[in-house]
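Closing statement on the coenzyme A sub-project.
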Amino acid sequence: MSEPKEDIALPFIEGDIISLCAMNLDRISLYVAWMNNPKIRKYAGYNMPQTIEDVKKKFEPKKEAVKEEIFFEIWQKEDKKPIGYGGFLWIEWFTRNAYMFYLIDPDYWGQYIGTEAGKLIIEYGFKELNLHKITTRLYAPNKASLRVAEKIGLTHEITLQKEVYIDGKHIDALEYSIFKEDFVKSQ
Ligand SMILES: CC(C)(COP(=O)(O)OP(=O)(O)OC[C@H]1O[C@@H](n2cnc3c(N)ncnc32)[C@H](O)[C@@H]1OP(=O)(O)O)[C@@H](O)C(=O)NCCC(=O)NCCS
């Protein structure tokens, strides 16, 4: 029988309470559990059950020459535990625009972790990837995510009216964004 794999972090960026680490597909079942968790999936756009195979396809390195997605596992430093993931989607290297996202285990909500994760991802996007604009798409009833967006310096740019269907009704999706020049001014 093989030895259980050590639960190790592969830190890439250190924050105060969290680190952004390389994804580790040995923990795929944890990612699947988060995506299927009713509290998380409601506002994270997962409205069909996610299997291990589905999630593997999402996170396995793609074959295209230019990376359009960058994912991080989010580790809680004190507990030495992976407690979420986040990163960039739809990166366009020509315009240098990208969408960011993050998802935290509900056991850790309300501890400033979403805020720190958002800040670190934005900092990475502007200081290391030289992005021009970072956007995130949020759903109007997801008050915690709207609050986090404001706390990390994003501003409301557009409303997509009745864009998504949740809890039996169409609701608005909001896009919040930040430009590099505004990020630099805020430093
Ligand atoms: C959105 C999410 C990342 C927030 O993570 P978190 O670690 O709880 O965030 P923080 O603790 O840093 O901040 C949460 C803020 O929202 C506020 N908040 C929480 N619930 C709220 C509610 N119902 N109404 C208003 N504000 C609320 C908190 O008070 C806090 O603000 P404060 O610091 O001013 O008090 C987390 O809920 C999550 O993973 N949700 C599922 C996935 C998702 O929605 N991702 C965002 C889309 S990319």
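Residues 11-186 form a domain with the Aminopeptidase fold (CATH 3.40.630.30). With this model delivered, the sub-project is considered complete and its resources will be redirected to Aim 3.
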